[in-house]
């Protein structure tokens, strides 16, 4: 008989990861359950949900008779996820912290902790997703250094591991996994890949995990949880009050407390206005929020966007894109939104243009454009600029036809797009580089990454950076993932009270 393989299962105290651990145990692996603590504060009702979740995860491990550890990534979460979120808001974007958290915390720090510190053969999570590897193949992976060039060597011998949607399409979480590294994916098992949520709940009931079944589905931002988001974020960002301005008439419709928490397409409650208005654009230099009177206003409809350097999960970039310069696939920018057919063009710097088959409502900078081919998730790129809206195009056509223009295009309130240029300018002028289809020469000449990553690589101003850095975080010993001594299966969890004392952000 071969050596029993060791799998570290990330356990949140929820039903999915509890059943994932159960399945791994049944498959005969040596399983260790690990709870991650990434945020330490009380929720709005003064309850420390992290403590309760950790307690629940510990209880499941006891029921399964497997070792349990707790690890703290509070500091890493603050620096690599939350600071990024605040910076994105300050740029007028709407970030997706859950995707960033998977990339940096679960599938980087946690992954390294599982493999290097605990010496596991693989890690596992309760995500509804699937890879192209069978469990056994996961254990046979050798560590190969990631490529240093912009695009991976196409003659690389090892087969890339692919990420596929889980069997339960309603629960599929590949959207949130679209930024994770090939190395982490190679060593990851998703035990729930072929199961539906209903079935998972039945298994949990059968295993006696009543305490996790009673819990509500986790909502809100990964690890930060449910709370009044506007109030919460304004504890960290200085409010920037300004006006609501009608995109059609340029008229000031009312005032707002700050544009950070407004996202495109969101309904704006404007004091004194009985009808609903919807946010269609922001001008972060004047603090104006542009609003339109209907939910599907043409100012919200767009069919073109550009991303930052695209993260390809298996092939970098996809072989079809290299061969044909363009690729047809499917696109979504929100979890669970229906997939829309699109055409992708690759730029020399690794970013992509995406053109959707039909205009979509509220494409939003800061969100991730996630691409699919059939049930394979190809990867994602952060949206950094948008093409013109239908409304802008209508205005342009009127201009060309010599028809009188509506108020907004003649008034001085011409809105600025996210890229800081006039909205009525054609797409090719709002971005520094035009869509450049990738040429063969472009592929074989690896470019240094420093030239390619545009906005994310740009550090934010010192003032902003210092503002969001809380003093309380320094001096804590949280850099090192700590395996709580008291958190092993045999000992009580009392040691966790040490981390509880850590100051909240
Ligand atoms: N605090 C945590 N500690 C350890 N692992 C975690 C933690 N939070 C999430 N995970 C891992 O990430 C997976 C996905 O988490 P997420 O909260 O997005 O989904 P979920 O469907 O609510 O999962 P669960 O039912 O296990 O809580 C979990 O199944 C678990 O493996």
TrEMBL record:
One protein family per Pfam: tRNA_Me_trans_C
The tRNA-specific 2-thiouridylase MnmA-like C-terminal domain, residue ranges: 302-383
Record's catalysed reaction(s): 5-taurinomethyluridine(34) in tRNA + S-sulfanyl-L-cysteinyl-[protein] + AH2 + ATP = 5-taurinomethyl-2-thiouridine(34) in tRNA + L-cysteinyl-[protein] + A + AMP + diphosphate + H(+)
Keywords of the record: ATP-binding, Disulfide bond, Mitochondrion, Nucleotide-binding, RNA-binding, Transferase, tRNA processing, tRNA-binding
E.C. no: 2.8.1.14
Subcellular localization(s) per the UniProt record: Mitochondrion
A GO MF label: tRNA-5-taurinomethyluridine 2-sulfurtransferase
Cellular component GO terms held in the UniProt record: mitochondrion
CDD domains: MnmA_TRMU-like (cd01998)
Keyword Chloroplast: no
Region (Disordered): 399-505
Enzyme class at the top of the EC tree: transferase
Biased composition (Polar residues): 406-465, 473-505
Domain tRNA-specific 2-thiouridylase MnmA-like central residue range list: 231-292
InterPro entries named in the record: MnmA-like (IPR004506), MnmA-like_C (IPR046885), MnmA-like_central (IPR046884), MnmA-like_central_sf (IPR023382), Rossmann-like_a/b/a_fold (IPR014729)
GO aspect biological process, one term: tRNA processing
Function, in words: Catalyzes the 2-thiolation of uridine at the wobble position (U34) of mitochondrial tRNA(Lys), tRNA(Glu) and tRNA(Gln). Required for the formation of 5-taurinomethyl-2-thiouridine (tm5s2U) of mitochondrial tRNA(Lys), tRNA(Glu), and tRNA(Gln) at the wobble position. ATP is required to activate the C2 atom of the wobble base.
NCBIfam families for the chain: PRK00143.1
Assigned protein family: Belongs to the MnmA/TRMU family.
Protein name: Mitochondrial tRNA-specific 2-thiouridylase 1
Native source organism of the sequence: Coilia grayii
């Amino acid at each position: 008989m071969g050596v029993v393989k060791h799998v570290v299962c990330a356990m949140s105290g929820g039903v999915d990861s509890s059943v994932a651990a159960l399945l791994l145990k049944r498959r005969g692996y040596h399983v260790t359950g690990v709870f991650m603590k990434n945020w330490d504060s009380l929720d709005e009702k003064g309850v420390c949900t992290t403590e309760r979740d950790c307690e629940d995860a510990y209880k499941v491990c006891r029921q399964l008779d497997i070792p349990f550890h707790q690890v703290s990534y509070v500091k890493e979460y603050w620096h690599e996820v939350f600071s990024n979120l605040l910076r994105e808001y300050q740029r007028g974007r709407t970030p997706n912290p859950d995707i960033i958290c998977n990339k940096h915390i679960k599938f980087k720090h946690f992954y390294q902790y599982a493999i290097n510190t605990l010496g596991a053969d693989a890690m596992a999570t309760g995500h509804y997703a699937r890879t192209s590897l069978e469990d056994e193949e996961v254990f046979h992976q050798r560590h190969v250094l990631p490529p240093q060039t912009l695009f991976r060597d196409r003659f690389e011998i090892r087969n890339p591991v692919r990420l596929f949607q889980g069997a339960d399409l309603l629960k599929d979480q590949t959207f949130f996994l679209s930024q994770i590294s090939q190395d982490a994916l190679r060593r990851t098992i998703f035990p729930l890949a072929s199961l539906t949520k209903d079935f998972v709940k039945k298994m949990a009931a059968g295993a006696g995990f009543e305490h996790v079944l009673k819990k509500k589905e986790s909502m809100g931002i990964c690890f930060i949880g449910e709370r009044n988001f506007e109030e919460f974020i304004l504890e960290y960002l200085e409010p920037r009050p300004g006006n609501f301005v009608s995109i059609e008439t340029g008229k000031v419709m009312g005032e707002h407390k700050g544009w950070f928490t407004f996202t495109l397409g969101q309904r704006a409650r404007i004091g004194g206005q009985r009808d609903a208005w919807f946010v269609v654009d922001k001008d972060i230099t004047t603090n104006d929020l542009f609003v339109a009177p209907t939910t599907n206003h043409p100012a919200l409809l767009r069919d073109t966007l550009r991303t930052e350097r695209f993260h390809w999960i298996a092939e970098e970039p996809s072989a079809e894109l290299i061969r044909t310069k363009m690729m047809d696939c499917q696109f979504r920018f929100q979890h669970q939104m229906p997939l829309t057919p699109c055409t992708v063009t690759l730029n020399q710097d690794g970013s992509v243009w995406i053109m959707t088959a039909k205009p979509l409502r509220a494409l939003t900078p800061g969100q991730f454009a996630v691409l699919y081919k059939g049930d394979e998730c190809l990867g994602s790129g952060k949206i950094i600029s948008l093409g013109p809206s239908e409304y802008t195009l209508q205005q342009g056509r009127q201009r060309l036809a010599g028809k009188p223009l509506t108020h907004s295009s003649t008034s001085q309130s011409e809105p600025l797009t996210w890229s800081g240029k006039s909205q009525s300018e054609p797409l090719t002028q709002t971005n520094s580089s035009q869509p450049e289809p990738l040429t063969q020469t472009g592929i074989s000449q690896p470019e240094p990454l420093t030239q390619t990553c545009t906005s994310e690589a740009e550090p934010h101003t010192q003032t902003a950076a210092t503002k969001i850095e809380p003093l309380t975080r320094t001096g804590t010993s949280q850099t090192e993932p700590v395996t709580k001594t008291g958190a092993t299966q045999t000992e009580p969890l009392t040691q966790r009270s040490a981390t509880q004392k850590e100051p909240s952000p």
